[in-house]
Amino acid sequence: MNVRRHHISAAALAAVTALGLGTLTACSSDSAAAGNTDKFDVVASFYPMAFLAEQIGGEHVNVTSLTEPGQEPHDLEISAKQTAQLQESDAALYLKGLQPSVDEAIGQSGIKTKIDAATLTSLEEHGAEVGGHAEEHADEHADEHAEEHADEHAHEDEHGHEHSHETEGGKDPHIWLDPVKYAEVAEGVGKAFEKADPDHAADYKKNTEALVGKLNDLDTTFETGLKDRKTDVFITTHAAFGYLAERYGLTEEAISGLDPESEPSGARVKELAKTAKADGVTTVFYETLVSDKTAKTLAGDAGLKTDVLDPIEGITDTSRGDDYFQVMEANLKALQTALGAK
Question: Can you supply a Gene Ontology BP term from the record (predicted)?
């Protein structure tokens, strides 16, 4: 256990136990950085969680990421060293449902402060096709999307697609790719920080408000940037962009399901080629952490281009930006080009 626990007040310790906090210092994977520092130590499951903790915690926190840059988060298997890191830290910040080995390790660990981002917003079931189901969102501008794209859902029936959530989908964990949902998570983490570490509550509140403001601005930028477009449909290798599609009235057609390593059927590939022609699709998107072979095969057969749409599960030297906001802006530019947005 972190030795600093012997130096915090009983009230602070009780708050920490009840809610918990998160932290980050450049997502170190060194076990020495995981605990026993002079700051509040947290283990984050992967980049989007670590980024939240860094932005909200600022100078008061220290974070270690279980997922190294360039590592596919879905494939992570917790090591004995990382299990020890969990035991030495004050808190764990994770997203249940994305990384089964992380869920299990945190569940079995003795760490008292566990923040599950999935409990701070609503998760939905997404299959290989996700349309702009704006009615599922209570926020105001989602309702506007519902009116603007009222006929969009007919797309499913027109092409005779099947939507078996039992086989293709399930609860989609990729909430950070929707700026509005990511802001909801940020607010929840910020409140947990304030209650768990009241000495720095004012700073956590200020940092959370600043981050939520930036995420709201990003939401507006996406909405404005995607308004005048030639098509609503985009094709990806990995069904990571369902929430983003719903938020902005788009339709994501994924070659594979929520698992980026799953192999698509020949029938699915042929179906997507027909969809591309019918809906004016120009581009097949792939991501940097997974092979682009399937995307290039489909694109070649259908006479389409390929480009990167980054699910931002980690930042590497090949990422189109140094942090979440920069890569999201790069994603917007890629979508604008592919969808023919003016």
Answer: metal ion transport
